[in-house]
Amino acid sequence: MTSLFDTYSPKIMTSPHTNYCEYRPHPFLEPYVCCYWSSEPKAIIDDPNCTSTIIPDGCTDIIIEYNKLSEECDILHCGIFEDYFTFKEDPYSVKKSFGIRFYPGKFTAFVSHNAKEAAQRLTGLEDINPSLTRKLREAFYASPNVYELIQTCDRILISVLKSDVRMIRNESRLDNLLFRILSSSGMAAVSDLSEKEVIGKRRIQRLFDQHIGMSPKKFSQVIRFQSVLCEWIDRSSSSRLKQPDHLDFYDQSHFSKDIKKRIGVTPYSLKVSDFYNTEEQTNGTI
Description:
Elements: E1 18-23, E2 33-41, E3 51-54, E4 60-67, E5 72-78, E6 85-88, E7 95-102, E8 122-124, H1 125-128, H2 130-142, H3 146-162, H4 165-168, H5 172-183, H6 190-197, H7 201-211, H8 216-234, H9 252-263
Antiparallel strand pairs: 1-2, 2-7, 3-6, 4-5, 4-7, 5-8
């Protein structure tokens, strides 16, 4: 299947203290699922004040957190958010995580809920969809390694899509709006979206409240940030501090402030290695 998001590859900041790895979903799920991912501490953290930074990417995640001592897992839903947030890392953590990252607006293809109500927060998946929570928990405990867990998750998600024709049918209007936002690197104005798609601004707002979780303007700002970040990473070191002329920043100060709002630091403090600290899993143990 051709995916609306074939050219959208959101960047994340990876902690230097964790092994983080991403895995591709089944081809049938590629229009919906950005990736599966796993993360666990490398070793005991020397710095007790170490924090990790989570930056906005327009996506939402299901996160399975497993405690190796209690052998219990919590299953959470992370809604969309517009700014960065940090959390303090436990220097003696015995937890490891497995996640399913959904493209913007695609979590609601699997779970009927209002995305705006789950935005900017972590929510127990049990409160959103008890049935899916039970299936994922059973899959986690029954899977001896991450690869078998992924295959089981593939089957679960594909089954959900195929069980309801309404869900597998794409929301064409929303997809068209998302395409215009993504292809413009977040620069398309709501008035332009309304005119080109022949849809009222209020209808656009309702679609974004239901499926995305924030207004089209705020979502576009997140996509612009991700576009800036991707371009910044790909630039030569000598040009990374310059503002991208085609992304409509007023001046260098505006550019720096927007980056700091989304990531917590100015472009002067960023390092390319902040976004590529990953290691491949060799044995697939989860």
